[in-house]
Design goal:
The complex is a heterodimer. Chain A is an all-alpha fold. Chain A folds into 2 domains: 135 residues, no CATH class; 123 residues, no CATH class. Chain A is 68% helix and 1% strand. Chain A has a two-stranded antiparallel sheet. By secondary structure, chain B is an alpha+beta fold. Chain B folds into 2 domains: 43 residues, no CATH class; 120 residues, no CATH class. In chain B, 32% of the residues lie in helices and 15% in strands. The two termini of chain B are 41 Å apart. Classes of the chains: A mainly alpha, B alpha+beta. Chains A and B meet through helix 5, helix 6, helix 8, helix 9 and helix 10 of A and helix 1, helix 3, strand 1, helix 4 and helix 5 of B.
């Protein structure tokens, strides 16, 4: 069997559709949460009311010069971003909404480098993944409309490339992050985590933990984070360590969300990606019950379908 | 309905795109992104520069501030930039903080910041710490590099301290509006060599070398790394 065929079969192995649905519902909300502090000042953010970095002609910090929008267009863009992001989360015209949302995210990331961070850069790709996948087929407005129209009962599991993408994206992200840390100061500087707790990212949680945590604990955490990130491809590939890696990743992002002020949205987005990609199947049971009940109720009310075993 | 062969090609195209993206993310993170830089436009590579987060230890707690030259009083006073950069006004994701983080050695950008702040203050309307009826003729842009506390020492919550209370040794001036520009904004055109009342001492109006020599200490150490997720 050729490598391509084997890869193809691995990708096409069925996974729970609810994995995609969980990601489709939560991820746009966290991206919008991150953007909310920006789009409430849309005219200053991508419009002509705020400061604009002048064109620098090929400077590495300015990947593309995008002129400021007039205020009305900036507000229009912000409205389109919010409307399309909410539509994705609610499952309204999911694919089209996800593509529009992704387009607005690409534009703002390039338009204002100053307000662009990791969330700004990964979210367009994640929204394209939502657009490609079977998003909105089980929960949400599109699924409801399809049921009302008497459509067939949606499958619970199927081949979903975007879920496989998330499952690879996370270890790739972590391992490159870990190697960057190892090439930086993480192997040579003790108490490195401590040094990042004293700037304007500080929250009451990080202040409290910095006040009570002994120095050795910072070194232990530094080693654990580094080992988790560098070894992530292995931890997530092996069945024996997968759930532990999932739990560690969730805890890591929870602490990041609690301890680094505005980074809360990044933490939540990564937790959503982790849960959608690697949460054990049995943990989806409550969501599965909800989806099944909704599907049965609607079918009963309109007298169509309802013959599939649950 | 899309014919099966085309659907199959679309699927493989999506897989190829995903694989290239993931490869780009990994290579950029570990610092081997040169092949991608050579092959792809910069704006596309930008979307793969996501994973190298916090690779270095912080040396200081860094904050960026501004002062305005008050024409009437002939003195520098702290200019609160937050009303003019309202997004994330109290943390380092603020756009003023970011513009100094990225561009504090870029004359063209700092000149633009100078012009923007002077125009906004003199346009009036927002409380920036200098009364709106007092014109400013220029700005100084500084970084504040506060030492980190020792582990175990009593901590104080991070809070904004007025510039006047920050020791001189923790301040570093990266940009100062040239004296000539200040004079012109404050007092209009004048003959060369004549110093009007209130012009800042020690600034040669004809000297446009207003970029103060920056030290290496709060320079981003790697061009792909933001240090902020």
């Amino acid at each position: 069997m050729s490598a391509l065929v084997r890869i193809s079969r691995a990708i096409e192995e069925p996974v729970l559709v609810l994995r995609m649905e969980l990601f489709r519902i939560l991820a746009p909300l966290f991206v919008l949460g991150f953007m909310s502090r920006r789009f409430v000042h849309a005219d200053e953010w991508v419009g002509d009311s705020g400061f604009r970095v002048p064109p620098l002609g090929g400077d590495w910090r300015q990947p593309l010069y995008v002129p400021a929008l007039p205020a009305w267009a900036a507000w229009g863009l912000a409205a389109a971003m919010v409307a399309s992001g909410l539509a994705v989360s609610l499952g309204i015209r999911t694919r089209a909404s996800a593509l529009v949302f992704a387009a607005t995210l690409v534009f703002v990331a390039l338009s204002d480098r100053l307000a662009a961070f990791t969330v700004s850069k990964i979210s367009p790709v994640l929204m394209i993944a939502i657009a490609i996948g079977p998003s909105g087929t089980r929960l949400g407005f599109d699924a409801w409309r399809r049921r009302r129209a008497g459509g067939t009962r949606p499958r619970k599991a199927r081949s979903i490339g975007p879920v496989r993408f998330l499952q690879v994206f996370l270890p790739v992200f972590y391992s490159s992050s870990g190697i960057a840390k190892a090439k930086g100061d993480w192997l040579t500087t003790p108490h490195l985590l401590w040094t990042h707790l004293h700037d304007t990212y500080q929250t009451s949680v990080s202040f409290f933990l910095a006040s009570i945590t002994p120095g050795w604990a910072f070194n232990l955490l530094q080693a654990l984070v580094l080992a988790f990130e560098i070894g992530a491809p292995l931890w997530f590939a092996l069945r024996a360590t997968r759930t532990l890696a999932f739990a560690f990743g969730m805890l890591l992002h929870l602490m990041i969300a609690l301890m680094f002020g505005p980074v809360v949205w990044f933490g939540c987005l990564m937790m959503t990606a982790l849960a959608s990609a690697y949460m054990p199947e049995t943990w989806f049971s409550p969501l599965e019950r909800l989806a099944s009940q909704t599907e049965n109720r609607k079918r009963g009310a309109h007298g169509s379908g309802g013959t599939d075993a649950t | 309905m899309t014919p099966a062969p085309w659907k199959g090609r679309g699927t493989w195209a999506a897989r190829l795109f995903a694989a290239l993206y993931l490869l780009g993310v990994w290579l950029e993170g570990v610092g081997w992104g040169a092949p991608f830089h050579a092959a792809l436009p910069q704006w596309m590579v930008f979307f793969t520069q996501v994973s190298a987060l916090f690779p270095h230890a912080a040396q200081f707690s860094i904050d960026y501030r501004a002062e305005g030259y008050v024409c009437e009083a002939g003195e520098w006073r702290e200019l609160d930039t937050r009303p003019y950069f309202p997004i994330d006004e109290n943390d380092k994701e603020n756009r003023f903080q970011r513009v100094l983080f990225f561009y504090r050695k870029q004359k063209a950008v700092l000149n633009a910041v100078d012009q923007f702040l002077v125009d906004r203050h003199n346009g009036g309307g927002r409380d920036d710490g200098i009364p709106p009826d007092r014109r400013i003729g220029g700005v100084r842009l500084l970084s504040i590099r506060s030492p980190l506390p020792e582990i175990g020492a009593p901590l104080v919550r991070v809070h904004r301290v007025p510039l006047a209370e920050i020791p001189e040794k923790e301040r570093k001036i990266w940009f100062s509006t040239p004296g000539g520009a200040i004079s012109q904004r404050c007092f209009g055109k004048r003959p060369r060599g004549v110093r009007p009342r209130g012009e800042p001492f020690g600034i040669d109006p004809s000297n446009d070398e207003h970029l103060v020599d920056p030290g290496p200490s709060d320079e981003p150490r790697d061009r792909t790394k933001d240090d902020s997720p």
